[in-house]
Every structure is written in C-alpha cells, then in structure tokens.
Write a structure and sequence with these properties.
alpha/beta; 9 strands; binds acetoacetyl-coenzyme A
Length: about 290
C-alpha cells in the first residue's frame, strides 16, 4: 500500500521519499506507480508530461538517515513488533516536529506512540486498497495524539483527494472491526459447508451489491493480513465472537495467502481466477460439492 500512498501524495504535489528494507521492494513500488500513471495517460486523464511531473516528486532511500520531512507514513506488514521498531527509527531519523503516522489496519496507535519521544505527534492514517481508487482515510487518534496532529492529518488526507473519518483507538478501529468479522464469517460459512466459495461470493455481490465477494476481497487484502487483524480483535476484546476460523489459519499456514502469491481461496495462476475447493474436505456438505 506504500506505493499507492506515495502515488496519491505525489499527485497532490507533495515531495515524497519512498523508503523500504530492500531495493527490490522500492523498485516494485515505483513500477506500480509508473504502471498506474501510464494507465491514466492511456485513458486520456493525464498527459505524458504530467506523468513525468508526478514521478519527479518521488525519490527513494534504502538506508535510514536523517530524513528532513514534515510527516512520515509507515505502511509495513501488520506485525506489532515490526511497526514498533519502525516507529522507534522514525523517531530517531526525522525532525522532532515531524508527524509520524501509521497505515495500520488494527494495531494500537497509543502503543506505537509510546515507542517514540513524541506520542502527541503519532496518529493512524489508514488508507484502503487500491489506494488511488478508494476514497476513505480512517484517521485514528491515540490517547496522547494532539488536536494539532489530528488537524494536520485530516487536511493531508483531504489534499490527497480522500475523505477522512475519525475513529478512536480500539482494536480494528471502525473499518476492520466490521469488515474482518464479515470476511471471517464467510470462511466459517464455507468451513461448515453452508455454501461454496462461488455461492457465498455470488450471494454477497448480487444480494448486497458488494463490488467483490468476501473470498475475492479476502484474497485481495491478503489472508495473512486478515488473520493478523482477527488475532488483534480476538486478543484486544477477549471475545470469542472474533475467533479466527481454523480454515483461514490453514490457508495461511499453507502459504496460500491470496492474490499476491497467486493462490488463496481462488487460484490466480493463469487465466481467469478459479475458486479452489479446500482440499481437506471441509465444506464437503456444501450444496455444489454434493451434486
Ligand atoms: N491500482 C490502481 N487503480 C486500480 C487498481 C489498482 N490496483 N485496480 C483497479 N483500479 C482502477 C482502474 O484503473 C479503474 O479506473 P477507472 O475507473 O479510472 O478506469 C477503476 O479502478 C475500476 O477498475 P476495474 O474497472 O478494472 O475494476 P472494477 O470496476 O471491478 O473495480 C475495484 C475494481 C475498485 C477494486 C472494486 O472491485 C472494488 O471497489 N472492490 C472493493 C475494494 C475494497 O473493498 N477495498 C478495501 C479493502 S480493505 C482495506 O484495504 C483495508 C484493510 O485494512 C484490510
């Protein structure tokens, strides 16, 4: 998602510094941005010159060094230890006045703030995938976040062409407190044989007008991310209604974590995505499997 955030920031005229742990991740991010902008040129929404102008706003750095920035937005994997480490480093390598934001989908902003010397300048800035398309930014205030930090980030989201919505700092915030239990429930519905991957997706697309079915969306988000968020909800609220489905755990254990690896609840390797029936026999009572 870091590439998407960098793209919308650069399109808004911000000077962007892309940082990652390996050069290949930086290169992949830049390629994604170049591809998205080329599509906009092909569709006549942007000139080749404007495309070049946006790309000129993006620079990259592989190593930590003194970053002279007004704000830093972390968009690493959904792992609290990784994020705590990054926040400690951002605290060390950015000016003390810089705002430190996290694109976390569920992890406590208050906890991330406590890993720095400036918790009043730490805030959640949660974008949605695909970032250039989705209009929402959830803005999450930790216990120590100041009004000035909130106002800065709210205005930044608006400049990025997004609609900011404020949420308080509780597990999953607003978006994933509601979305992820729905996706997890879809996995239970498959696991208990009530429906198939296709039938459950069709019900939610045609019956509820969702643009993607829950399995398509889970694969898009990443099953590892979905499981990590469910664990945060389960642990944070201590309520069994958030227990991750064992079938979801199995897919993650197998490494079938969605689109990014070519296989999740659908198989993306070659041609149109095909639903892949769980090979462990769960869902064997589903209507389509009985025919
Ligand atoms: N990057 C940039 N642009 C993209 C894109 C991508 N990965 N994928 C699609 N687009 C653009 C296309 O270029 C197209 O643009 P134009 O209309 O300007 O031509 C537009 O999006 C629509 O694309 P398509 O016609 O190819 O496909 P679609 O109509 O099926 O829409 C979709 C694709 C926007 C992804 C749509 O299926 C959708 O809205 N899905 C739901 C997405 C969603 O729920 N996202 C939130 C996930 S949760 C999350 O991110 C946060 C979390 O913490 C878990």
């Amino acid at each position: 998602m870091g590439a998407g955030i960098a793209q919308v920031a650069a399109q808004a005229g911000d000077e962007v510094l892309l940082h990652d742990v390996e050069q290949r991740f930086i290169d992949r991010g830049l390629q994604t941005i170049e591809r998205n902008l080329s599509r906009a040129v092909d569709k006549g929404r942007m000139t080749e010159e404007q495309r070049g102008g946006v790309l000129a706003h993006i620079d990259s750095r592989l190593h930590w060094e003194d970053f002279e920035v007004d704000a830093a937005i972390e968009a690493a994997t959904e792992n609290v230890l990784v994020k705590l480490d990054i926040f400690a480093k951002m605290d060390e390598y950015t000016p003390p006045t810089a705002i430190l934001a996290s694109n976390t989908s569920s992890i406590s902003i208050t906890k991330l703030g406590a890993a720095t010397t400036r918790p009043e300048r730490v805030i959640g800035m949660h974008y949605f995938n695909p970032v250039p398309v989705m209009r929402l930014v959830e803005v999450i205030r930790g216990l120590a976040t100041s009004d000035a930090t909130f106002e800065f980030v709210r205005d930044l989201a608006i400049r990025h062409g997004k609609t900011p919505v404020a949420a308080n700092d509780y597990p999953g915030f607003i978006s994933n407190r509601i979305l992820c239990p729905m996706l997890n429930e879809a996995v239970y519905t498959l696991y208990e044989g009530v429906g198939t991957i296709e039938s459950i997706d069709t019900v939610m697309k045609l019956g509820m007008n969702h643009p993607m079915g829950p399995f398509e969306l889970a694969d898009f988000v990443g099953l590892d991310t979905l499981l990590a968020i469910m664990e945060v909800l389960y642990e944070g609220y201590g309520d069994p209604k958030y227990r991750p489905c064992p079938l979801l755990r199995n897919y993650v254990a197998a490494g079938w974590i969605g689109r990014k690896v070519g296989r999740g609840f659908y198989d993306y390797r070659g041609g149109a995505p095909k639903a892949s029936v769980p090979p462990d026999g769960s869902a064997r009572h589903a209507p389509a499997a009985r025919e």
